[in-house]
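Researcher: Please generate the 3D structure of the following complex. Treat every line as part of one assembly.
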Amino acid sequence: MTPPATADPVALGLFERHGRAVRRFLFRLTRDPAAADDLAGEVFLRVVKASATYEPREREAAWVFRIAQNVLRDAHRRRSRSVEHAVDADAAAPADQVASLDLQRGLDALPDDERVALLLGEMGGLSYTEIAEATGSTVPAIRSRIYRARQTLRARLLPPSREAAFPLRGSNDD
Amino acid sequence: MTTDHAELFSALMDREAVDPEALARALEDPEARRALVGFATVRRELHAPAPGEREWIVAQAPRLAAMRPSRDRWRLVAAAVLLAAGLGAGVVAERYRSQQRPPEPTRIVQLDALPVNP
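Model: Done. Output below.
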């Protein structure tokens, strides 16, 4: 894609590098493709507006995902996350999306702080320090939240019966 | 398995610095290794494309590309402000100059030359 002469190269670069991850992050949090589209669009509108003042003092991923968090927070203020806006994940799901449904149910079951910390780390690639700054928490708390979230999701995706199907061999296995 | 072993793998996956000796001990713990495999599965699932993602990217890219950079908008605003300031300064200067000038005559009285006494 060759952007027109009027395009903001900074904003376009940010979109190309982080657009997909931001949209995925917002989908995982809203479970609603249409809501994720709108919110991700709003994120990059704000990115374009703010790109003139963007200074690479912090990592750009941390900056973009902070904007995404603000957009999400504003959206939550406008309307609380509710069942009428959430897609019924079980409805009409193809058989090959069973793992995704397990994942989505697992994410939904997580406490908000664990879910956000995990997704900021996984989707945005933010460090513990960056996540702690973005969420007003501490590095040890973030480390612990992400670990707990991973354990919860792991138990959902790979229950002991399925883990047993892939035994790991090693000196201490027996 | 100690909680620390699996937590250490979790931190390692997040590119945090971990103690290599602790990592070596964790790698010998089969349950921690199972946890690591589980964490990798979680990552793979999280990074799977979300519904509608591709369509959104395709639709959003040209929209964003067509947007005028905010830098340009600020330049236009700055130019407009400078122009307005220049015009305003001109008007004020003209008023000031007109206050310094003597008023325009409203009537002209011409005096005849007085006769000179012999």
